[in-house]
Amino acid sequence: MSEAEGPKGGFGGFGGFFARAQQLATQAVENARPVAEKVKERAAQLDTTKVREVVQQAGVQAQEVLQRAQTAAEPQLAQARAMADKQAHSLAKVNAKTFLNANAQFGVPIENLAERGDDGMPLAAPRVPPVLEMMLARLETTQAEAFVSEGRPIFALPPDQQATRALAKAIDTNLNTFNFTNREVHTVAALLRQFLVELPEPVLTWQLYDEIITASQCTSEAQTADAFKRAIDKLPPASKVVAGRLVPFIARVASDGKLDIGTISLSFGPSLLRPKRKEGALRSLMEDLPAICAATESLIACSPALFPPQPASPPEAEAAAGGAG
């Protein structure tokens, strides 16, 4: 064994191998360097303007496609928003009483009573709530006597609150078994006022309060009637139907009855119209009462122009006489 070879299997052999490997690696790098330089040179010569233009054009086209998609989808989005708003409005009208008692009539939103049939299913168009129609029909039987019963105007007597609530509870239990025709007229008058007082929202709605008050302050009756009509046309369908039945009735009581219009307006005004306030509600209502009564008097005066008479069909008139025997 020669000295150059070193010991067999020793570090000398490994060192030679390592030196040879290092030499080969260095050679490979040197061989690759010209290729790398050429690639670098080609990259420096490459014009990227066209690439940027292509990318920019693709971005513009993508934006146009997105806008077209949004435009195409807008009707569906609008419909979805409208449905969501309607559902939210319906949910807002749900109150505890109707949730617990599907037959409830007092303290129930007008929409719940006017937009559902006797079977509880939605109607194609709102109607005067049967309980309201039955009460008005019973009271209208005294019109020939100037809305007087037993020598007194039907709305002159203060209601017996305890008896009125007991009857309202009976009606809430089952309207179909309650007979209005054999009830004393003053009792039905008290029930009507209780029904209107317990409405969660006045007949002419919170939203239109300011507009109706402003309309009542116009300088001429014609201007007032026109302003009232514009406001009433904005009522929800159910409220409009109820107002079209109730306001002419109140107007007839005021014109044909024995009570002065001021008393009638004070009795019915806050049920037709009042502002929505949470704090100091009683004080606020008392402050607004003169304006409410004045607006109610104007509504009564304009009633024939706002709500032209529409005679009921014979079946409706017969049914309105009301209830079970």
Explain this structure.
- Helices cover 65% and strands 1% of the residues.
- With 325 residues, it is mainly alpha-helical.
- The chain has a two-stranded antiparallel ribbon.
- The protein is elongated, with a radius of gyration of 42 Å.
- The protein starts with 10 loop residues before the first helix and ends in a 5-residue tail after the last helix.
Concise summary:
This protein has 325 residues and is mainly α. It contains 13 helices and 2 strands; from the N terminus they run αααααββαααααααα. It has a two-stranded antiparallel ribbon.
What layout of secondary structure does this protein have?
Elements: H1 11-45, H2 49-93, H3 96-100, H4 110-114, H5 130-140, E1 148-149, E2 152-153, H6 161-173, H7 185-197, H8 209-215, H9 221-232, H10 237-256, H11 261-272, H12 281-306, H13 314-320
Antiparallel strand pairs: 1-2
Helix pairs in contact: 5-7, 6-7, 8-9, 9-12, 10-11, 10-12, 11-12
Radius of gyration equals 42 Å
Count, helices: 13
Mean pLDDT: 81
**Fraction of helical residues:** 55-70%
Main beta sheet strand tally, sense and closure? 2 strands, antiparallel
Distance between the termini: 135 Å
For the biggest β-sheet, the strand order reads 1-2
Low-confidence stretches: 1-11, 313-322
Structural class: mainly alpha
Characterize the overall form: elongated
Task: Report the strand count.
Answer: 2
Strand content: under 5%
Order of helices and strands: HHHHHEEHHHHHHHH
